Amino acid sequence: MEKIALVVGASGITGSNLAEKLIAQGWTTYGLARNPNTEINNLIPVAADLLSQDSLESAMTDISPTHVFITTWMRQETEAENIRVNSLMVRNLLEVLSPQKSVQHVALVTGLKHYLGPFEAYAKAGTLPVTPVREEHPRLDIENFYYAQEDEVYAAAERDGFTWSIHRPHTVIGKAIGNMMNMGTTLAVYASICQETSRPFRFPGSGAQWNGLSDVTDARILAEQLIWAATTEAAHNQAFNITNGEVFRWNWLWYQLAAWFGVEAAGFDGTIHPLEVELANDGPLWKEMAAKYHLKEPDLNRLASAWHTDLDLGRPIEVMTDMSKSRQLGFLVYQDTRASFFDLFAQLRQEQLIP
Predict the structure, then answer these.
(1) CA 12, 14, 18, 20 torsion: positive or negative?
(2) Residue 120: is its pLDDT beyond 80?
(3) pLDDT tens digits along 34-64
(4) Can you give the residue ranges of every domain in the chain?
(5) pLDDT > 70: percent of the chain
(6) What is the pLDDT of residue 103?
(7) What range does the record give for the signal peptide (predicted)?
């Protein structure tokens, strides 16, 4: 049977990489977003507002996906609003698709905030799990929009009879413009500014992150797991962690990243130096650099998400992820983390997003 994918959030880091892999594997692929990605060859754009059933019904006319991949969310001021808005997006989509009875599988991408807590209580005392985090860990006794999104998928699956999978990446490394959580590009922009101004490339985070073990998730390996789980019967109706499959310490990787840009690295000096503060006044400078080097995006805030990088690198504990569950079921893909960053930096330079 023909495999028809609907990638929700196809303009983001995860969605765009997933769409490219699906298309390469011969899937008919629709990319849904408020402002759909039109740069991916053979991706069929679908413009819709997930908060409006009317908008979705109009956009989804004559589209009958067999597999739905939900890779997007909307940040709100409070966790209560995160829950309301992000669960509504999932509920609206699956209710609009329900009458067609075409959906066989729904995959939802969440993340390690499932274990660490939502933004308002992120990695705070009293909510911290034992690491490495494992899928078997119970939900925290705290409101979390990831839980609300999961519950919408479970309810719709019970109603409509499709299978599901939940995917929990760590920090996702990949290219996207206007993305709210984009550490790789944020660090590339920061290093480029350091190169331009001869400032040291100073580690912005905590001692626990500098010295502790960590891991990240290449967007390409996340895409591989999404497709694997959607098409592997043994992986249906389960939640999976997903990272590159190896660990590192920032006190090693930071110097590797600095060397790629040819800038002076400065490690943890006993104090957290938030990137939000470091980059706060660099908007005009980036605009000048964009003109000087003919860069495609002159708006610093469209490339860098300093707040999220600060959140990850400022955590008071080391965070790493157990990958045993999907490995035992046959998902054996591995990605070198240094290559994840270097590949991204090269892509950003090639596409004239950094000098």
Answers:
(1) positive
(2) no
(3) 988 778 999 999 999 999 999 999 999 999 9
(4) 4-169, 180-215+247-318+336-351
(5) 98
(6) 98
(7) none
User: What's the pTM?
Assistant: 0.95
CA nearest 209: which of 320, 321, 318?
A: 318
Instruction: Read off the pLDDT of each residue in 299-319 and give the average, rounded to a whole number.
Output: 92
Per-residue confidence (pLDDT) for residue 122, from 0 to 100: 66
Q: Is the dihedral of CA 270, 271, 275, 281 positive or negative?
A: negative
pLDDT in tens, 56-97: 999 999 999 999 999 999 989 999 999 999 999 999 999 999
Q: What is the CATH number of domain 4-169?
A: 3.40.50.720
Reading the block at residue 78, the tokens are 């409070």
Contact 354, 345 (CB under 8 A): yes
DSSP assignment of 19-74:
HHHHHHTT-EEEEEESS---SSTT-EEEE--TT-HHHHHHHTTT---SEEEE----
Identity of residue 53:
Q
State in Å, rounded, how far the first CA of the chain is from the last one: 46
Give the whole-angstrom CA distance, residue 130 versus residue 322. Answer: 11
Q: Write 131-139 long-range contacts (CB < 8 A, 24+).
A: 131/317, 131/318, 131/319, 131/320, 132/320, 132/321, 132/322, 133/241, 133/319, 133/320, 133/321, 133/322, 134/241, 134/322, 134/324, 134/325, 135/168, 135/238, 135/239, 135/240, 135/241, 135/322, 135/325, 139/114
Rounded Cα gap, residues 135 and 322, in angstroms? 8
Q: Please give the structure tokens belonging to residue 175.
A: 């290219």
Q: Residue 195 gets which letter from DSSP?
A: H
Query: How far, in Å, are 29, 73, 107, 215 from residue 181 at the CA level?
Result: 24, 11, 20, 16
